[in-house]
């Protein structure tokens, strides 16, 4: 008896500027999944349209009632699992996951609560502080609140980082060195989000840590050192190669073990599943957490696939492991 293959939709795109990167990530996953095990399809979710990509790149609308597709022969295609590789909203902030839960669609990665929580930097750091995970000192502001620059600088010192609270692709982040620049920086951040964070500057090495659950165990794929050629790891550095990424990071064993331990603790404390990439600043051997990404970039140039390569897990196994977990939910 031949087992029928499971149908897997690689779901990519998104509503933010990061959709361009998501399409590249989706392509890598689409190319990498084992065709002996799965029938693999492409689904693109954009603000204006959700569509299935058929033969010759023909578009078929997704039926949002049950996330199915009706093909030319009137046959209805349903997916056994969705591989979620949307960066930003709605695939990284819980919206898509909650919808899939509501219609009973299985999917990869973490659930809607973890997605929504980690997309909110302030709340993530607040929850993780209860588990003894350090972060920078910060002040949180909502749009329309009075901004007392003297109080902020007195509390945090200079320089400070000003960033949108919703985690996206480093858009709207500024480094402020002078008190006089602070208000302008908050305005830039408020363009991206109604809530912003002002964080004290941590002078140290930035590392990016890939953590996944692979074959039933939480593992650290790698610790990558980020050496920015710009002031800091901003959008341009992230996507246009204006930074050098060194894997493994140039840190001593004691620091490496501490980073691994804290990264795993953060992952497990939040009940994470699937790909994740956490950013830390190492200062005096202590990792301070900046944020956690639950759907990090997965294009060939991205950090996570590079770490997997060094760790010795093939992209096919990495992606297959995700699909199997989804199918067994």
How would you sum up the major sheet? 7 strands, mixed
Q: Give the tally of β-strands.
A: 16
Helix content: 25-40%
What is the total number of structural domains?
3
Q: What share of the residues does DSSP label as strand, in percent?
A: 25-35%
Which sequence of SSEs, written as H and E, runs from N to C?
EHEEEEEEHHHEHEEHEEEHEHEEHH
Low-confidence segments, given as residue ranges, are none
What would you call the shape? globular
Mean pLDDT: 93
Biggest sheet: strands side by side, in what order?
Answer: 6-5-4-3-2-1-7
CATH superfamily of the largest domain, please?
Answer: ATP-grasp fold, B domain
Q: What is the CATH topology descriptor of the largest domain?
A: D-amino Acid Aminotransferase, Chain A, domain 1
Q: First CA to last CA: what distance?
A: 25 Å
What is the CATH-assigned architecture of the largest domain? 2-Layer Sandwich
The number of helical runs is 10
Structural class label = alpha+beta
Radius of gyration: 20 Å
Return the CATH class of the largest domain.
Answer: Alpha Beta
Would you kindly provide a written description of the structure presented here, covering whatever features stand out?
The chain is an alpha+beta fold and 329 residues long. It has three domains: 6-108, Rossmann fold; 120-134 and 203-293, ATP-grasp fold, B domain (D-amino Acid Aminotransferase, Chain A, domain 1, 2-Layer Sandwich), CATH 3.30.470.20; 138-197, 2-Layer Sandwich (Dna Ligase, domain 1), CATH 3.30.1490. Helix content is 31%, strand content 29%. It has helices at 19-32, 95-103, 112-118, 121-129, 149-156, 182-192, 235-240, 253-269, 303-311, 315-327; strands spanning 6-13, 38-45, 50-53, 59-63, 68-70, 76-77, 81-84, 138-142, 160-164, 174-176, 195-200, 205-214, 217-228, 243-246, 276-283, 286-293. The strands form three sheets. A seven-stranded mixed sheet has the order 6-5-4-3-2-1-7, with helices on one face. Helix 2 runs antiparallel to helix 3 (112-118). The longest helix is centred in the C-terminal third of the chain and has 17 residues, at 253-269. The mean pLDDT is 93.
């Amino acid at each position: 008896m031949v087992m029928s293959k499971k149908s897997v939709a690689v779901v990519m795109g998104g509503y933010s500027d990061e959709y361009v990167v998501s399409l590249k990530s989706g392509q890598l996953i689409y190319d990498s999944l084992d065709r002996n095990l799965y029938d693999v399809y492409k689904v693109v979710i954009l603000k204006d349209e959700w569509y299935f990509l058929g033969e010759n790149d023909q578009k078929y609308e997704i039926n949002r009632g049950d996330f199915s597709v009706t093909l030319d022969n009137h046959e209805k295609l349903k997916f056994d699992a969705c591989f979620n590789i949307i960066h930003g909203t709605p695939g990284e902030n819980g919206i898509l996951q909650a919808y899939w839960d509501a219609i009973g669609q299985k999917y990869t990665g973490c659930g809607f609560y973890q997605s929504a929580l980690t997309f909110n930097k302030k709340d993530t750091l607040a929850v993780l502080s209860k588990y003894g995970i350090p972060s920078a000192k910060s002040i949180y502001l909502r749009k329309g609140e009075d901004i007392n620059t003297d109080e902020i600088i007195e509390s945090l010192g200079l320089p400070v980082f000003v960033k949108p609270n919703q985690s996206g692709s480093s858009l709207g982040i500024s480094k402020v060195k002078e008190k006089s620049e602070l208000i302008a920086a908050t305005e830039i951040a408020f363009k991206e989000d109604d809530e912003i964070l002002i964080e004290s500057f941590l002078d140290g090495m930035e590392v990016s840590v890939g953590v996944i659950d692979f074959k039933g165990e939480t593992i650290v794929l790698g610790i990558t050192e980020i050496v920015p050629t710009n002031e800091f790891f901003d959008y341009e550095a992230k996507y246009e190669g204006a930074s050098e990424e060194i894997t493994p990071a140039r840190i001593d064993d004691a620091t490496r073990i501490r980073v691994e331990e804290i990264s795993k603790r953060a992952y497990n404390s939040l009940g994470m599943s699937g790909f994740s990439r956490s950013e830390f600043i190492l200062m005096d051997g202590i990792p301070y957490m900046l944020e956690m990404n639950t759907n990090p970039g997965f294009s060939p140039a991205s950090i996570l696939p590079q770490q997997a390569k060094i760790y010795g897990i093939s992209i096919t196994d990495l992606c297959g492991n995700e699909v199997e977990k989804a199918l067994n939910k």
